[in-house]
Amino acid sequence: MQENTRERYALIGAGPSGLAGARNLDRYGVPFDGFESHSDVGGLWDIDNPRSTVYRSAHLISSKTTTQFTEFPMAESVPDYPGHAALADYFRAYADEFGLRERFRFGTDVVRAEPADDGWVVTTRDHAGTETTSLYAGVIAANGTLATPHVPDFAGEFTGEFLHTARYKDPTLFAGKRVLVIGAGNSGCDIAVDAVHHAASVDLSVRRGYHFVPKYMFGRPADTLTRGRPLPPRIKQRVDALLLAQFTGDPTRFGLPAPDHRLYESHPVVNSLILHHLGHGDVRVRADIERFEGAEVRFVDGAVAEYDIVVSATGYRLDYPFLDRAHLSWTGDAPPLFLNLASPRHRNLFVLGMVEASGLGWQGRFEQAELVAKVIAAQTRAPGAAKEFARAAAGPPPDLSGGYRYVTLRRMAYYVEKNAYRRAVRAWSERIPVGPA
Ligand SMILES: Cc1cc2nc3c(=O)[nH]c(=O)nc-3n(C[C@H](O)[C@H](O)[C@H](O)COP(=O)(O)OP(=O)(O)OC[C@H]3O[C@@H](n4cnc5c(N)ncnc54)[C@H](O)[C@@H]3O)c2cc1C
User: Quick check: CB of 109 below 6 Å from ligand 1?
Assistant: First the structure.
């Protein structure tokens, strides 16, 4: 056991959240060691990271100005909705700008973290298989939320090729094949659009209705239109639904089911190309799956069709494999962390990036990291404020819905409304009387 880490935090992951973590721990003078299993920073935006779940055609669905770190704007030459390669470059540049790369041990997996002696025993494994165990003051997990596939229990067996979006990279896979994409979320729609240009046919199995938002409205990135002027939920839902009716129209005209929820009560699909291809007949809508039978798929409406490839675009599940679920007080689909970041049970266990919201961007994750850094700094520099935070973390959770009634789906278990969330996080940051080191 290496003991010289007793006063340091272990930070897991060098994706956008982990980088924001490292940056803020540095700003507030909190000593830490960063661990990243891949050889570089950037998280899932580095397509060469074996854990990355982006595909060659992946681009931001939120525009660059609403997504970037405020202290590090993207260059003018970067387009409104950059692709993964430009984003990997952006995170490398961010790490270089603030000297964050040297704060991480690359090629090192955190395999276990267990509380002991008022700290955490952290076990890491390098790619040669060498394990190291050290006692840390605490743990900050920023290992991402979109890495472990969720695959529903489909009845029957499909004998063609079956893959989850996590393994999908390149549409040449579809060349000349009959393709079925299951799920019309953001990845499912992107992949169906990719397949159109290669496949013999493309079907999209849809269980529920979605709201479709175009990337551009009035010639501007759609998410920049009402920036800084949040409207009350009901008014925003009405105004934006009217706008959408003008731009994308009624999704049922394209054969899609009607949404069973109002706009913003579930994550919208930011993709108008899928509607374009549905309108061209390049993609056909199918009902929910009833069962697989060899090369055939039976749908709940009685239709039957044969496929060569089925892509399960059925999302991801939260996974902190190095932590016992009890330490996160895990119930249901997500651990009930205070402000989506602090354990109600351990004052020295935090998670960064466990937050879904429309338009939160990396600045929202930066603000999470700033609060965590301030809480940790306060444990020695303003213990009263740190205790107050720990008491709140153990108490009833605040309402972060912003007045929206979110649908009860697995991926919505840690969904927040971005303005309500950022307000709550910033209010706690302001209450903690610790300045940058
Ligand atoms: C196709 C696609 C489009 C998206 N579009 C947008 C968008 O438009 N806007 C937006 O805001 N978000 C978008 N996202 C969400 C995306 O998850 C976030 O932008 C961001 O990448 C989250 O950063 P993160 O650091 O929390 O996680 P990740 O980027 O997943 O990084 C986690 C890091 O932790 C490392 N790691 C994991 N486990 C361990 C371990 N045990 N030990 C050591 N290291 C470990 C991983 O290697 C990885 O580098 C999109 C996601 C996808 C897949």
Answer: yes
**Residue 66 CB less than 6 A away from ligand 1:** no
Query: Per CATH, which fold does 5-148+316-431 belong to?
Result: FAD/NAD(P)-binding domain (3.50.50)
pLDDT at 57: 97
SS3 at position 178: strand
- Residue carrying the six token digits 């008491």: 391
124 CB under 6 A from ligand 1?
Answer: no
Output the pLDDT for position 3.
Answer: 60
Closest to 134 (Cα-Cα) out of 125, 122, 147: 122
**Which 3 state secondary structure label does DSSP give 338?**
strand
Counting ligand 1 atoms within 8 A of each CB, the residue from 66, 146, 168 with the most, and so the one to mutate, is 146
Cβ-based neighbours of 364, under 8 Å, separated by 6 or more: 355, 357, 418, 421, 422, 425
> Which region among 117-131, 229-243, 319-333 has the lowest average model confidence (pLDDT)?
229-243
> 3-state SS of 192-255?
HHHHHCCCCEEEEECCCECCEECCEECCEEHHHCCCCCCCCHHHHHHHHHHHHHHHCCCHHHHC
pLDDT score recorded for residue 144? 98
Residues of the chain with CATH 3.50.50.60: 5-148+316-431, 151-312
The backbone torsions φ and ψ at residue 236, rounded to the nearest 5 degrees and listed phi first, read -60, -45
Q: DSSP secondary-structure letter at 411?
A: G
pLDDT at 194 over 90: yes
Amino acid at site 206: V
C-alpha count within 13 angstroms, C-beta hemisphere, residue 244: 24
Write the class of the CATH domain 151-312. alpha beta
- Closest atom, ligand 1, to C-alpha of 365: 26
